[in-house]
Structure formats: structure tokens, C-alpha cells
């Protein structure tokens, strides 16, 4: 798993520094506005992971990352941004899941799938 992360980070760092994320207006789990084009990690690498509360493989992935996330942050400074594709009526379930599992990721809600579509992501 550690080698997998190193490969992902190397890929992210190899991307041109001027690469721009699409601009989509979303909200975080606390209801604050988030423009996806402004997602960043102060010049350090970050990974965007799309997930949903109904996606068991997604939850297993985030659980596995949670176990090593502090080490990854210490070693690389990387940040994980998770984008929920749950429907709007499940926003509270997203927050409950994140809080209940102690996941300290930045969480963004994409209930209409607009960011997911603009990123070319298929359902998890």
C-alpha cells in the first residue's frame, strides 16, 4: 500500500504546476462554499478521491488510508480530499460516516455529480 501511495504522489507531483481543476461550486460537510478550482495543499501534493456512503469498496479504501494517513502526511505533506457523490438528501449520512470513523480528510459534497463529470470520473 505504501508503494502505491508513493506512485500516486509521484504522478501528482509530475503533473504541470499550472494544471487547473475545473471550477465547480460545491459545499463541504459543514455547508461552507467550496470552489473546486481552489482546492490545494499550499504547493504540496494532494489526492482527490471520489466516494459514496453506499460504495463498500470506497469505504474500505478510505478506512485503509485512514490507518496510514498520519504517516503519509508526515513523510510527504500530502493531503487527501474526498468528494462524496451521495445525493443531497444523504449529506447528513456523509457527515455521520466521516465523524463516526474519525476520518480527518477534507470532505466536499458533489450531490449532482458535476465535479465528477468534469473530472471524467465514472461511479465508484
Oligomer: single chain
Anisotropy-based shape: globular
> Could you give the order of the helices and strands?
HEEEHEHEH
Shape-level CATH architecture: 3-Layer(aba) Sandwich
Number of domains: 1
Briefly note the CATH topology name. Glutaredoxin
Give a verbal description of the structure.
There is one protein chain. The chain is an alpha/beta fold and 124 residues long. The chain has a single domain, classed as Glutaredoxin (3-Layer(aba) Sandwich). Helices cover 40% and strands 19% of the residues. It has helices at 2-14, 56-76, 91-101, 114-118; strands at residues 25-28, 33-35, 46-51, 79-84, 106-109. The chain has a five-stranded mixed sheet with strand order 2-1-5-4-3. The chain is globular. The two termini are 19 Å apart.
Protein traits:
globular, five-stranded mixed sheet, 124 residues, 4 helices, alpha/beta, 19% strand, Glutaredoxin
Layout of secondary structure:
Blueprint: H1 2-14, E1 25-28, E2 33-35, E3 46-51, H2 56-76, E4 79-84, H3 91-101, E5 106-109, H4 114-118
Parallel strand pairs: 3-4, 4-5
Antiparallel strand pairs: 1-2, 1-5
Give a brief outline of the structure:
The protein has 124 residues and is an alpha/beta fold. It has helices spanning 2-14, 56-76, 91-101, 114-118, and strands spanning 25-28, 33-35, 46-51, 79-84, 106-109.
Amino acid at each position: 500500500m505504501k508503494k502505491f501511495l508513493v506512485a500516486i504522489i509521484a504522478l501528482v507531483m509530475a503533473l504541470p504546476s499550472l494544471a487547473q481543476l475545473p471550477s465547480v461550486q460545491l459545499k463541504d460537510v459543514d455547508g461552507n462554499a467550496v470552489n473546486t478550482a481552489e482546492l490545494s495543499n499550499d504547493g504540496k501534493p494532494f489526492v482527490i478521491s471520489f466516494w459514496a456512503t453506499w460504495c463498500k469498496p470506497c469505504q474500505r479504501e478510505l478506512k485503509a488510508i485512514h490507518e496510514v494517513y498520519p504517516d503519509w502526511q508526515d513523510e510527504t505533506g500530502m493531503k487527501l480530499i474526498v468528494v462524496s457523490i451521495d445525493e443531497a438528501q444523504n449529506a447528513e449520512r456523509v457527515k455521520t460516516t466521516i465523524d463516526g470513523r474519525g476520518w480527518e480528510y477534507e470532505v466536499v459534497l458533489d450531490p449532482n455529480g458535476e465535479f465528477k463529470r468534469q473530472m471524467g470520473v465514472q461511479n465508484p
